[in-house]
Write a sequence for this structure.
DNA sequence: CGCAGCGCCTGAAGGC
DNA sequence: TGCCTTCAGGCGCTGC
């Protein structure tokens, strides 16, 4: 499930190969989630940026091609179209190369919009500062968390106080900061601790090329390595790496969270 | 307006 | 072996 480290890994791999490349043709799976990919035909890609989990490619006509990878989305530049039933979109570049979007479960989506006009993608439009940008500050994070009474785990996944965190890195950050996932009121010192943990966990994930539990592959088709570094996610029942007591798991707002009842008091 | 709940998707894994 | 159920979960949408 691509979160910030996985999306940034893909962005870094794709950007050099896509910069200044014309989009000559495109085809998609017949779903409104993917058909807007064809709107980019006839333009040239200027660069590839990222905001949270969204890849954003500014085009030379003032629009942006936006790609969200959902749960199982993957991108690669290929010299030919692969025979693969899960390719949901592809763009033909110059020199007989293709940008190929593969997404088994079709949770991803593609849009082509005037630059900065994100009303068709409300999560992108309303999301907070990117977790690895200088705009993500402890003070701002504390302030943003205070605007909602939802559980802290739910807030992290909402992309509103900070953009780029999903269930894996959110679980890790809460464990590292010693914050119970169901906590609703976050003090200033706790927010500062959690801010540091979010940054640290995402940077570690990025340094390891992302987390591959099952589906994630980078733009070269290789898995990440951060799954070997996870301290809490998916370790329910196993000993906490800090206090050795068994980690627990519980479902909050429809998502399974692992945590240490000792190190993450309510 | 905030937010809880649901639907979208498919393959893997577990139960019988 | 094979069928059925459950699970994974980000995000958009609906309705309270």
């Amino acid at each position: 499930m691509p979160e910030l480290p996985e999306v940034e890994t893909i962005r870094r791999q794709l950007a050099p190969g896509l910069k200044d490349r014309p989009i000559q043709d495109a085809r998609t799976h017949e779903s409104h989630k993917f058909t807007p990919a064809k709107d980019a035909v006839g333009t040239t890609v200027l660069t590839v940026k990222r905001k949270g989990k969204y890849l954003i490619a500014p085009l030379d006509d003032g629009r942006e091609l936006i790609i969200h990878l959902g749960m199982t989305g993957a991108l690669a530049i290929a010299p030919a179209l692969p025979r693969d039933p899960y390719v949901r979109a592809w763009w033909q570049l110059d020199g007989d190369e293709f940008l190929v979007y593969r997404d088994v479960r079709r949770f991803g989506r593609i849009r082509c919009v005037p630059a900065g006009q994100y009303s068709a993608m409300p999560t992108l439009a309303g999301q907070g500062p990117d977790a690895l940008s200088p705009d993500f500050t402890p003070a701002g994070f504390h302030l943003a968390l205070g605007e909602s009474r939802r559980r802290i785990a739910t807030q992290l996944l909402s992309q509103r106080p900070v953009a780029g965190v999903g269930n894996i890195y959110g679980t890790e950050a809460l464990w590292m900061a010693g914050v119970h996932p169901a906590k609703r009121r976050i003090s200033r010192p706790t927010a500062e601790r959690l801010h540091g943990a979010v940054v640290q966990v995402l940077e570690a994930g990025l340094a390891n090329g992302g987390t591959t539990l099952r589906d994630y592959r980078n733009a070269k088709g290789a898995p990440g390595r951060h799954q070997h570094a996870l301290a809490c996610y998916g370790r329910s029942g196993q000993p906490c790496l800090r206090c050795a007591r068994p980690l627990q798991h519980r479902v909050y707002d429809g998502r399974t969270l692992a945590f240490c009842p000792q190190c993450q008091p309510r």
Summary: The longest helix of chain A spans residues 188-207. The longest strand of chain A covers residues 63-68. The CA atoms of residues 7 and 53 of chain A lie 6 Å apart. The mean pLDDT of chain A is 95.
